Amino acid sequence: MQNLLAFLAKYKNIFLFLILETIALIMVSFSYSYHGSLAFNSVNDITGGIFKTFAEVEDYFSLKRENEILLKENAALHDSLKSSFLITDTNYVYVDTLYRYVPAHVVYITTNNPSNYFIIDKGKKHGIKKEMGVISPTGIAGIVIGVSNHYSLVMPLIHPNFTGSARIKKNNMLISVQWDTTDYRFGKITDIPSYVDLYKGDTIVTTGFSLIFPENLNVGTVEKYYPSPDKEFATGIIRFSTDYKSLKNVYVIDNLMKAEVKKLMEEKNE
Amino acid sequence: MNKTLSNILRFVILILIQVLIFNHISLWGYLTPYPYLYFILLLPRDISKTSLLLAGFFTGLTVDIFQNTLGMQAAAATLVAFARPYILKSYFRTMDFAKDEIPGINKLKFGGFFKYTFTLVFIHSFTVYVLETLSLNNFLNLLKYTSVNALITTMFIIIFELFAAKKTKR
Predict the structure, then answer these.
(1) Which residue of A has its CA nearest to B74?
(2) Cα B150 from Cα A161, distance rounded (Å)
(3) Cβ of A115 and B67 within 8 Å?
C-alpha cells in the first residue's frame, strides 16, 4: 500500500496528463458522427452573446450586399404568390399551413475547418428545436443540432456528417449529396444513374422526404460531371447555392406536420 | 502589476483575440493560426507541473467551447503543457531562472524564444491536424501543413511578445 501510494505520488503528473487527455479524446470521439454531434455540443448563451456583439459591428460592412440579396428574394417570393398565378384548377391550392419560417441572423460561422458549423440568434424561446432545417435566401444551409435559450447551433452542408438525398431538377432523379471536406464552395454528388446526362449549370434541389426541408429548394448547381466508365453510378461536383462565406440572414423551418407524419410511421411499425 | 491578475488578463484577451479574430483567418484557404498558446508558453518557469497541465487543459477547452470542437484543442493544449517543462529543460539547461520568472523573449533571447515557441506550437498543430483528419496518410502533406501553420502561429506569438516585452521591460 505504502509503495503504491509512493508510486502514485511520484508519477501523479503523468497520471493527471493521461486522465486529461482521455477526457479530451472522449469528447473528440463524439464529434465523429451525426448523432454524436446532435447529443453533445457546446452551444450556450455566453459564447452566443459574445459572438452576437461582434457580429453586430461586422454587419454594417455588408449591409448593401445583404439588401440586394434580400431584395432578390422578395421578388422571387412575390412571383410565387397565389395572386401571381392564373388559377384554373381550384383543387390544387393547399389550404393548411405546412411550414413556419423563423427569420434569424448568423452570429458566428466557420468555413475552413474539416468540419464546420454556425450559430444563429434564435433558440428555445423562439420555438427552435433540434433537427429543424435552416435555409438561406439562395438555398438550403443546414440542420439545427443544438439549442440554448437564445441561440442555436447549426450543422451546415459543409460538415462531413451531413449527407442527404437530393433531386436533379430537370428529370427528378434521386442522387446523394455530400461535402468533399476541402472547399466550402463545392460538394460531391454520387449515385447518379449512368444513363442520366448532366451538364454544367444543372440545378440540384431538395426532395422533401426528410421532413426537414420543403421540396424543390436549391442545393446547388452542377460544376463538373464524371460519367462512370463501367456503366455503374456516375459522380460529380456541385457548387452549393449557399455562399457560407457571406451568410448573414437565414430562416429556420418548422415543419408543422412533422409530428403527424412521424406518428403515422410509428403506427405503421407497430 | 499583480502576477495572477496579469495572467488572468492575458488569458481573457488572448481567448477573445483567438475566437473573434484568428478563428476567422484562413491563410491560403486552410491555415488557421492559434496564438492563444502564448498564454501557456508565458506561464512562469517554476509553475508546478500539475497547475501547468490543468491550465493547458482548461485554456484549450475554453477555445473548444467557442469553436464547438469539444476536446480537440483541449487534447492538443494539454500535450503542449505536458511537453513544456521537458522542452525548457533540454533547450535551456544552463540558464538560471529567478523565482516566478517568465520564459519570455528578454530571458531566452530571440533565437531561444523562437526555438521554444516553434517546438511547442508544432506539437499543437500536429495534434490538431491528426485529430481533425483522423489519419496519418499522406504524411508528407501533413508535415508540410503543420510546419507552415506552426511557423505562422510562432510569427504572431513573437509579434505579441515583442510588443509585450517592450511595454513592460521585463
Answers:
(1) A24
(2) 28
(3) no
Indicate yes or no: CB of A153 within 8 angstroms of CB of B32.
Answer: no
Complex ipTM over 0.90: no
| Cβ-contact A253, A64 below 8 angstroms | no
Residues A198-223 have pLDDT tens digits of 888 889 998 878 788 888 888 999 98
Question: Measured between CA atoms, how close is B98 to chain A, in angstroms?
Answer: 23
Domains of chain B in sequence order: 3-168 (1.10.1760)
> What are the φ and ψ backbone dihedral angles of A89, each rounded to 5 degrees?
-105, 115
In the predicted model, residues of chain A with pLDDT beneath 70 are 39, 42, 78-97, 270
Give me the residue spans of the domains in chain A. 2-30, 42-82+96-257
Task: Check residue A129 and report its DSSP letter.
Answer: -
Radius of gyration of chain B from its Cα atoms, rounded to whole angstroms:
15
Cβ atoms within 10 Å of A227's Cβ, excluding its own: 14
Q: How far is B77 from chain A (nearest CA, A)?
A: 10
Instruction: Provide the phi-psi class of A61: left if phi over 0, else alpha when psi is between -120 and 50, else beta.
Output: alpha
Which CATH superfamily, name and number, covers A42-82+96-257? Rod shape-determining protein MreC, domain 1 (2.40.10.340)
H helices of chain A, in order, are 2-10, 12-30, 34-39, 45-59, 63-79, 258-269
**A113 at B interface, C-beta within 8 A:** yes
Minimum-distance CB partner of B23 among A31, A110, A153: A110
